[in-house]
Amino acid sequence: MMNEHNSGASGAPVFHGTTILSIRKGGRVVVAGDGQVTLGQTVMKSNARKVRRVGDGSVIVGFAGATADAFTLFERLEAKLEQYPKQLTRACVELAKDWRTDRYLRRLEAMMAVADKDVSLILSGTGDVLEPEDGLIGIGSGGAFALAAARALVDRDDMDAEAMARRAMAIAGDICIYTNNSLVVETIDE
Hints:
Structural class: alpha+beta
Helix content: 25-40%
Order of helices and strands: EEEEEEEHHEEEEHHE
Strand content: 25-35%
Number of strands: 12
Radius of gyration: 16 Å
Distance between the termini: 29 Å
């Protein structure tokens, strides 16, 4: 989850965790996510599914943030993909506009890594729709660790995108206490 504090505004523990990594390499797109959900200092679940296919299955989404918020955003993204079929960037821009301006959606705390065979994007509640120049995305509490590891591995010819993602996620899991090695990995061939 994106919130890095031990308690929310009410003083109640908040959920932590999540590492999402997206890699574009060698004609393949991979989105990987860990499975840990933490409440305060307690691991509540170790095998949550934070990476999913949406639409007709040609789009992979990984989320970092509050789970209920992520499901709301999954549904909204699917609706935008139905409205703008085969136009992932347009669907994401339209979702980001709604997310930033809609009173209900504005309160959602999440980030999304979204990819299809043509484009990889980061979406945030501030209206950002960013396409990384290197085809690598890392979000969530362990996202920077996974991203750094992926950047260090990207030149290796002996590792394809999936092997690279699995190794980078393992490195992030060794460093970030809110990340585990129970992975969900989805791939698309470009």
